[in-house]
Amino acid sequence: MAIQRRVKSIEQAIAETEEPDRRLKRDLRAVDLISFGIGVIIGTGIFVLTGQQAAVNAGPAVTISFLLAGITCAFAALCYAELASSVPVAGSAYTYTYATLGELAAWVIGWDLLLELMLGAAVVARGWSAYLQTLFDLPSWLAGTQASPDWSAAAIVAALTAMLLFGAKDAGRFTGALVVVKVAVVFIVIVVGARYIDTANYSPFIPPAEPVPVESADVLRQPIVQAFLGVEPTVYGVYGILAAASVVFFAYIGFDIVATTAEETKNPQRDVPRGILGSLAICTLLYMAVAATITGMVPYQELNDADPLAQAFVTLGVTWAAKLIALGAVVGITTVILVLMLGQSRVLFAMARDRLLPERLARVNRHGAPSTITVVIGLGVALLAAFVPLSELSELVSIGTLFAFTVVCIAVPVLRRTQPNLRRPFRTPWVPVVPILGVATCVWLMLNLPVETWLRFVVWMAIGLVIYVAYGRRHSRLVPGGPSAPAPEPRETGR
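Given the sequence above, the corresponding structure tokens read:
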């Protein structure tokens, strides 16, 4: 017997935003959304991945890797902008999928976003702890990569959880203040570093491809496209640039969180597209500028370090810059953790309001914040950050994000066909070309991630499907006879 596909109407999704006790407060503006976008994008990537990927994969051409990752995000961002302006409801990709591809696909995306955002916040919290140790010379039992439990990582997550309980507007003010500080630090790095650029370090700009050493050629660590095509594993060259683009894509994760705040924005039709596209454009330019600066300062082979930006300045005798960079990293990563947790809470809020998760999780406090969900997320992220070494799982976060972007790109032409009369204040240009390019680039980057990342992703999604079948499908608002399902025809009863 075929299972009926459940699709939530957009009208129903918007109507549910006005339900008592489950209504978020609308007080965000475009500047808040751009601050959220920059706040979550500029973090670990700009302070760590720039140097590491130049050293191990792309050489000075890591600048091209950042450009390719940014272009991939731009295709997805244009699709997000149309959907967010048309469906200004919390949940982002989850909500859009519910209205286009149905409930099962929506659950898959919601479960996928849980992987992206919660695990991403935990990974970044560990990085925050490492930079804090560098900045203040803290003991290794308290902070840093050797700390277990990592008390500093858990403490910052707890503090930011408390802040999120006061609502998105206060979180936006805090993020905006820290964004000013960390962008200033990035500009200082670019301006000061430019004085020490030696153009000889750019030659060759694209290092010739080299075979991976035999002892390092683990099939599980190969990009899946190389493993299945039987291509000899290499670093540098064109494959190196693409492999680096797949990894530095982690640095862009989070711009889509702007879309999760659409329900809390005063004018979402205008401000959400501005927030998404504006923050992405600014951050792409900053990433490329930093990558070009650091690979010009020192030979790329010397950048495979936990804090490559700082070490580049130390190598050149500019020791004062190391502390400044550590300060910028601590400030920058703080906002990343905050915005990732904010986005996660809004996705789970939407899922709980749809009763795919327990509905009581969707209740909001007097500040208009989903308090129970926020606390649960904070506890989960704190435990992960404190006890699990998560640095090797950044690729898992990337594949989750790329999968969500792929579905969003598919949703735009689907919704254009199924609801052609829907009001679209922002329209993705050149449909279906842009969505197709978005799907193609996202899938290509996914294929350049390691085999073991794909295996972990498949296991995670299988666990999610089991939970959906066991709970979500039976409790959904769209279940026949449920509160949002069509009322059954009345029937006569006898005494």
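The first strand starts at residue 210 and ends at 211. Try to locate this feature in the token string yourself.
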